[in-house]
Amino acid sequence: AIPSGRVFLGWNASTSAVADGTRLYRVSHPAPSGVPYPEQFSTTVSNSALSSCSSWPHSSFLYSTITGTDVGGVYGGSSGSPVMIASGQVVGQLAGGCTTGPNQDPSAGCDPRISTVDGAFSSTYSAISQYLAGTGGSPTVCVPDAKTACVLGNRFKVNVRYRAGFDNNAVDTDALKKSVTGFGSASYETAFFYFNSENNIELLLKILDQGNTDSQGRPTIAVLFGTATPLRIEVTVTDTRTGTVKQYASVFGSMQGKTDFTAFVK
Predict the structure, then answer these.
(1) Which tens digit of pLDDT belongs to each residue from 82-124?
(2) Nearest partner of 24 among 87, 77, 80, 78, judged by Cα
(3) Can you name the residues that pair with 226 across neighbouring β-strands?
(4) In principle, which of 5, 178, 181, 257 could form an S-S bond with 192, CB 3.0–4.6 Å?
(5) DSSP state string for 195-251
(6) Positive or negative, the Cα torsion across 173, 178, 179, 181?
(7) Is residue 87 exposed (0-12), middle (13-18) or buried (19+ Cβ within 10 Å)?
């Protein structure tokens, strides 16, 4: 349980939270060689093009470096310190310094040639989400209702809205979920949505775990859907484990679908 009088820092477990060029902020309390330094503030800038070091793959770690406008540095003994983005949300935890060239000292925290490496919170979250759900609570999961389909073990929340008019104005009406059985397994699950009559399906969506990987080699989960209506629609899929949201839309007069094989990191 959370000790009384404490609150969590905010966090962002989305894999898209730290794009290249994102400034990262840290407050750490290093103690190299067992001699504590004063608490320190430092900043770096994310760069996924930096060479990786052994046991710290880009798929699970954030790489950043000091630029001309950054301040401070990180030193031994401060591993595990939270790294935050400008909103104050935690996006990782400090691992250490990474050297990829000659004459580089990983303990030289202010050397711009040293890559600072943080464990990505998007990778950490699934292992610790049970402790972040509140006092004695459990991880956030999808809760099904008439407008919400919960897919692939209740991990993914699916909602559909449509424009109840023959034009391209903004969507304004919730589609309803068609309750069906026999369209799910451990590796896939299918959801159906209708507008006015549950016997008239307007959209079919499937969440599929079939072993795809993204450009960083991370296993991914796919989103596939198709429509059977000319009305403008908007599909929102939320990963309740990480908070990542994907949204897909079609325009009026064009029955469209989507195949997104790398929609979510597994």
Answers:
(1) 999 988 889 999 998 887 766 667 677 777 888 899 999 988 8
(2) 87
(3) 204, 257
(4) 178
(5) SS-TTSEEEEEEEEEEEEE-TTS-EEEEEEEEE--SS-EEEEEEETTT--EEEEEE-
(6) negative
(7) exposed
206-212 mean pLDDT? 90
How far is residue 19's CA from residue 158's CA, in Å, rounded to a whole number? Answer: 25
pTM for this prediction: 0.52
Find, among 174, 116, 129, 108, the residue nearest to 147 by Cα. Answer: 174
Question: Cα 161 to the chain's mean position, in Å?
Answer: 23
Per-residue CA distances from 66 to 47, 111, 158 (Å): 10, 7, 40
Q: For the chain, what is the radius of gyration of the CA atoms?
A: 22
* HEC per residue, 108-159: CCCCCCCEEEEEEHHHHHHHHHHHHCCCCCCCCCCCCECCEEEECCCCEEEE
Closest by CA to 69, choosing from 88, 43, 97, 39, is: 43
Q: Give the tens place of pLDDT for each residue, 32-45.
A: 777 778 888 999 99
Phi, psi of 192 (to 5 degrees): -120, 145
Q: Residue 166's CB: how many other CB atoms inside 10 A?
A: 11
Structure tokens at 15: 């894999």
Are the C-beta atoms of 31 and 107 separated by less than 8 Å?
A: no
**Which of 260, 219, 241, 245 has its CA nearest to residue 59?**
219
Which of these, 247, 146, 149, 245, lies nearest to 191 by C-alpha position? 149
